[in-house]
Design a protein that fits this description.
With 120 residues, the protein is α+β, with helices and mostly antiparallel strands. The chain is 57% helix and 14% strand. The longest helix is centred in the first third of the chain and has 23 residues, at 2-24. The chain is elongated and about 55 Å long.
């Protein structure tokens, strides 16, 4: 019904806003815990929920060639891009070690480019 659609839309919006606020906190332990439990669901949401794709994509975290221990967001990655870099570099692999041995990745690393590792 119309009422349930409106309620669903508002609940989704409030949930996404709350997650965004939690992610922005200096102490990101709460968001890291959430990410560990629901990161795959957010990735699936980016694929399936066209209405909220942009909001969901801002919540994603990635393993990066420049983030040895932690994860990075797309926003942080873009902020670190080189002046002449026009593309976001990424590779999908089973593990970070497998991704890092790709000739494509090795070439980018030699040029000091950051690569996102899409692993899982």
């Amino acid at each position: 019904s119309r009422v349930s659609r409106i309620m669903r839309k508002q609940l989704v919006k409030r949930t996404l806003d709350t997650l965004k606020d939690i992610k922005k906190r200096e102490d990101s332990k709460d968001y890291d815990t959430f990410w560990d439990a629901f990161g795959r669901n957010l990735k699936l949401g980016v694929i399936e929920d066209q209405d909220n794709r942009e909001s969901l994509s801002n919540l994603l975290l990635f393993v990066s060639s420049k983030s040895e221990e932690g994860l990075t967001s797309l926003e942080d990655y873009v902020g670190r891009m080189k002046e002449n870099q026009k593309a976001i570099y990424y590779i999908a692999a089973e593990t970070k070690d497998i991704a890092a041995t790709s000739p494509f990745v090795e070439d980018l690393l030699k040029r000091d480019m950051e690569i996102l590792y899409l692993i899982e």
